[in-house]
Amino acid sequence: MIEKYRGLDLNLFIVFNALLTHRNVSRAARDLGRSQSAISHALGRLRAYFGDELFVKTQDGVLPTERALELSEAVGAFVAHADTALLRAVPFDPTTARRQINLGLWDTGELATLVPLLDALRVKAPNCTIYSRPYTGDALEQALASGTLDLVLSAPVALSANILQQKLYDHRFVVIVSNDCPLEGPITAHQFSKQKEIIAIPSPLLKPRLAEAMEALGITRNIAVTTHHNLILPHIVGSNSEYIALVAHRVAHAYKETFGLKILETAFEIPRVPICQYFHRRVKNDPFSIWLRRLVCRTMAQRPELHFGPDNSFAAQGG
What we know:
Largest sheet: 6 strands, mixed
CATH class of the largest domain: Alpha Beta
CATH topology of the largest domain: D-Maltodextrin-Binding Protein, domain 2
Radius of gyration: 23 Å
Oligomer: single chain
Number of helices: 11
Helix content: 40-55%
Order of helices and strands: HHHEEHEHEHEEEHEHEHEHEEHE
Shape: elongated
Distance between the termini: 34 Å
Number of domains: 3
Mean pLDDT: 83
CATH superfamily of the largest domain: Periplasmic binding protein-like II
Low-confidence stretches: 302-314
Strand order of the largest sheet: 4-3-5-12-6-13
């Protein structure tokens, strides 16, 4: 049994995790406080043991091979369990910590979250940085399991029982129009149908919910433009009083402040969509993860509603 693991040690798995997170040897070295040559040497040992390149050089850094992705969940869980078992007495001190916070967010989530979160970090954890990236359903759970992502902020998504959730707030939908649009709220379904609608797909998880809600209400949508890029939406809406867009209220206020648009309430009731933060079960009791989840809850300026399962833990997906 011992011979099977000859050549492996915990430090190699820590290097593996850092490379998977940063996809760059120099950034992984900085994160671990080691030299690039030490990281390269550790990677060489990992390659020799697993008989695979694991991380392939690219112009921007390195990319994991299929074998590395297969190993990511097991290695991430192993490192996390080691941290919990061996270092459980070491608290997380945000005032002195230097680490990257990895968040799974789409651009509309960034609009609602990043500025207030950065303001909070500047005071609470001045040496921590944020790396925000979009995610896909297939990769979301793997990214949380491996530690590539610390948290995902998202509309409800079906995941395994290893992923826990905590509700942050509800997405309430409002209408945005140009400042010179004669319409005043609350806007009726008939008025909405007369305007030319601009749709910016917020995320693969939110789009079908909104479309289904509008269809259930029997509202005719006069769609002029559909785009995957939310950045263009306020520019188009602000360019002509005939244009209209339906967006989450937190996003609408960001657009209003930056682009001078009007926000109108609707006379028809669109079901709200809960936004939750998702994290892996392995970090439920991790001091850093606990601190981060609490910080996000407070930053959202909402009283967090905790979903408890039968074991009085956070609710699991698919459990």
